[in-house]
Amino acid sequence: MALTRKSRTAMDIFKSNVGCISTYSKKIDDMLDGGIRLGVMTELCGNPGSGKSNLCTQLCVSVQVKYGINSDSTGTAIYIDTEGSFVPIRLQNMAMTADNHYRNHNQIPMDANSVEHILKNVTYFRCMNVAELIACLIQLKQLMTPERNVKLIILDSLAHPIRSIIDGDHLTRHKYTVRIVTLLQKLASEHNCAVVVVNHMIAKVESPRNEAYCAPGNFVALGDAFGHMSQLRIQLSWKMNKREIRVLKSPHLPEMSMFFQITDDGIRDINEDELMDQDECFGTSQENLHSISNM
User: Fold this and answer.
1) Which of 129, 249, 255, 282 could form a Cys-Cys staple with 241, CB 3.0–4.6 A?
2) Where are the domains of the chain?
3) Thinking of the domain 16-293, which architecture would CATH place it in?
4) Confidence category of residue 265, pLDDT binned at 50, 70, 90
């Protein structure tokens, strides 16, 4: 009896999935066991302003820099924008920082990772609805060539086009979600590239059933069914006036969290002194609020 799909050994799968893209935060990379993994789909969820698009933009730079990707070679990126949240000047600023850093340390040839080179290697698509998004994903196969060497696909976001289906019921939205996720997972697996899908947090009364996927007072959009399809779920949020990144779901990582910061240069670590200073400021503001409430 013929197999419907070509089989692979466990060693083949293990070797093909080796590689990560750096977030440019050593602490986050350590928490994620190297960074954003190649060959799998990672869900990045959070409220507006939590830093999702900034992290996606940083990854578009990292994947092109020799020391930003733990793989045999650097690659290019594809950015699919469904919300209009892509900011080219932000990408340019991060690219300039990376370019200046490696030039100053003589770690790359002078023309290898110029700002222009980095910008040209991010292919951008603007999809206004579900139909355009699916058509775009189907056509991506034509771009997955050895010459282009795509190592990163960003979808920012999935929730927006799905929730914009005005005439669709729950089953219709679920059908489109499964279709899109299947296409993305196939691209990740067949071409050993990292796929990052941005998702939203929406308000809902917390229940024990959703506890594993919820922050207090919020839960991840697109429901439990999409949660089961995500191989790795990471949440960005604010906690005690600091940015926090948390692993919510992973087959190989423990659930844990880490503080980080977003600077003009991009995603960066936050040191202990800064944490203490922010804690003191937060504590002072809380005391002031308490004093005002007692007046």
Assistant:
1) 282
2) 16-293
3) 3-Layer(aba) Sandwich (3.40)
4) very high
